[in-house]
TrEMBL record, chains A, B:
Gene: fahA
MF-aspect GO terms: fumarylacetoacetase activity
Pathway where it operates: Amino-acid degradation; L-phenylalanine degradation; acetoacetate and fumarate from L-phenylalanine: step 6/6
Transmembrane segments: none
Name by which UniProt lists this protein: fumarylacetoacetase
UniProt domain Fumarylacetoacetase N-terminal: residue ranges: 2-97
Species of the source: Spirosoma soli
Entry keyword Metal-binding: yes
EC number, UniProt record: 3.7.1.2
InterPro entries: Fumarylacetoacetase (IPR005959), Fumarylacetoacetase-like_C (IPR011234), Fumarylacetoacetase_C_sf (IPR036663), Fumarylacetoacetase_N (IPR015377), Fumarylacetoacetase_N_sf (IPR036462)
Domain of life from the UniProt record: Bacteria
EC class name: hydrolase
Start and end residues of each Fumarylacetoacetase-like C-terminal domain: 104-369
Pfam families, per database record: FAA_hydrolase (PF01557), FAA_hydrolase_N (PF09298)
């Protein structure tokens, strides 16, 4: 998986994560180890992946194969320069891997949508009538997306408390376990992307935490959707896994009934079997796995998200992020947000250290992890973690 | 007012609109007419205004004053180079004036919000409970914002027709008359902008048409807000008027009752008396003024929009666009959208050429105009028009 890092006095550059180390691709390239790939080494010395991504899918694939060959035990091609090009992660500072143009957040996790419906519209059908016809989504805020390990400040804002409009630090700060798709190819404005080409527009995937202030969101979101309840920060992994790496884990998604309109019908399975989990670390340092779920629980596939996003002509650009929305399973310990895990605060989550959580406390950290494994073939693809610690709210405003 | 243009073989550069002409600021600067302002001429030779804006408000003001002096009759300073530096608009191609990071669309027009409430929730209070407490907004799509005169293709999409989920060209394509604020200064993530500093973060304003497909929007927007109903295109004027130019037109806004929370209370009036109108030109070329309204009808001031947007810590960046939402007055001919003018299609608008409109037809053009005038002091500030013509939908998808 690819990321942007710097170390010592070196400027930001592109790297590949290899266990505890990062392979410095600018150095590898400058030292001539990319042979006849004919890529300008400058492309590996950028502060974001965008220029590399813009070289196109055949180049991503060639570079990916070449790096795998360099890393394979048999060749030990990099043995002579090992100490030079492998940087221990402890020496590195990670950066946001892409310059993000626009960020879209979907609502593709059907069990999450059902849970939210059950909580907020208890007397109605959990899913709204449009849910199974189109991937519901809203535009999010790109400027406030931060790289993993950036602390997240608890937002202040307006919410209703005891029937009064109140201003103060959010009392219902939450995480959302999501995947983010990094767009790898642009489509011109006005030209929809057909679903069977849609995956060619994905460079790779990351873990994504769409922090949410549920009280702010609840008060503000009618009729135009979430705004300040979401835009104070979203956290993205520093590492992007090429979609190709996940090919062995492709699976059928859930049966879609009613059948979606033709522009959302794909000729191949579009889901991926990726185990996901959320770890809550308290201020005291104890760690608690509070959620275990899987990307295959999403209702809509990645390809469907892209086909829908562009069917009216909207243009995607390289580096854009499409997040899936919260991924929950059906079991109570598979819910991807505290809103669901504590059932809107009514059923506090008991942690093993004896403490309880409805929503996040100052000093809590959330880490999301992802892993695809196929024991039969000995395959294992880890996603890059995303973590973030909650800082207490500013006190300047009232 | 400032814009980006090119002509003949010249690359895009910054210009000032002077009647039918554009003053080429790169040339003026290279020829030494910016005297001791000490600005790198390269800043005027960029394809967007962002680098100029980044120089900061004191520089905007100095350049603005200097250009006014150069243009004043008394000095005729540019007489010797007049033919060189004044380019007739007919020779120029205009470009999107800023590189937009994020685009936010507010709902600050209270009469618009009331009209929408009356149409869609006829048995309830027209305004939702949050409306007078906070400026409702949603994040929009930045990638599909186009400069004035770019044609706009009618989107295809899903909507309900006779109780059936249908796919096809939108049957309810609309315009929205809005103002766009161009952000002139960035705030760090996590640092709210106090309301009395908020106007310092505005570089200037433009006319903005947030094209909307009402049928697509209506089917998709619950529960997360508008998405494909809005993101197929928004049109922005090629010209940005510095906020300072509007200072003589500052007025008190409507009484805000209940009083907003302290972070939304300003020490000075924050509204501007700007006459606005929308012209519909049919395919046959006849022009019809279908709306006359005024920016002073907005409920929330520009400063309130910025203070609210950032109160939870969201960071604004230079070049971001904050649009006001549709600006309607109270009179039926002051409504800033066809949704309101035709009362959701139930009262077709009769045009002077005998034709009628519920929503836009292929070949229709919409032009938005703005003008601030003070006859007593002989002041007159025109905003840059924004116009766009509707193209028929693609026929490839079904």
């Amino acid at each position: 998986m690819y990321g942007i890092f710097n170390y010592d006095i070196a400027s930001p550059r592109m790297g590949v994560k290899v266990g505890e180390y990062i392979l410095d691709l600018e150095l590898v390239s400058l030292l001539g180890y990319f042979g006849d790939l004919n890529i300008d080494p400058a492309v590996f010395a950028q502060p974001v992946l965008n220029d590399f991504i813009a070289l196109g899918k055949p180049v991503w694939q060639a570079v990916n194969q070449h790096i795998k060959a360099l890393l394979s035990d048999e060749q030990a091609a990099l043995a002579d320069i090992h100490d030079q090009v492998f940087i221990h992660q402890s020496r590195a500072t990670m950066h946001l891997p892409v310059r993000i143009g626009d960020y879209t957040d979907f609502y593709a996790g059907i069990h999450h949508a059902e849970n939210v419906g059950r909580m907020f519209r208890p007397d109605a059908e959990p899913l709204l009538p449009n849910y199974r016809h189109l991937p519901v989504a809203y535009h999010g805020r790109a400027s406030s997306i931060v790289v993993s390990e950036t602390p997240v400040r608890r937002p202040q804002g307006q919410f209703m408390q005891n029937g009064q409009v109140t201003f103060g630090p959010s009392q219902a700060l939450d995480f959302e376990l999501e995947l983010g798709l990094i767009i790898g190819k642009s489509n011109p404005l006005g030209k929809p992307i057909p679903i069977d080409e849609a995956e060619d527009y994905i460079f790779g995937i990351t873990l994504f935490n769409d922090w949410s202030a549920r009280d702010i969101q609840r008060w503000e979101y009618q009729p135009l959707g979430p705004f300040l309840g979401k835009n104070f920060s979203s956290s993205m992994s520093a590492w992007v896994v090429p979609l190709d790496e996940l090919e062995p884990f492709r699976v059928e998604g859930p049966v879609q009934e009613p059948a979606p309109l033709p522009y959302l019908q794909s000729s191949k399975p579009g889901h991926f079997d990726i185990q996901l989990e959320a770890i809550l670390q308290t201020k005291q340092g104890t760690e608690h796995r509070i959620c275990q779920t899987n990307a295959k629980h999403l209702y809509w596939s990645f390809a469907q998200l892209i086909a829908h996003h562009t069917v009216g002509g909207c243009n995607l650009k390289i580096g854009d992020v499409l997040a899936t929305g919260t991924i929950s399973g059906t079991a109570p310990d598979s819910f991807g947000s505290l809103l669901e895990l504590s059932w809107n605060g009514t059923q506090p989550l008991a942690l093993a250290d004896g403490s309880r959580r409805t929503f996040l406390e100052d000093g809590d950290s959330i880490t999301l992890r992802g892993l695809a494994v196929d024991d039969e073939f000995g395959l294992r693809v880890e996603l890059g973690d995303v973590s973030g610690k909650v800082l207490s709210a500013l006190q300047r405003f009232s």
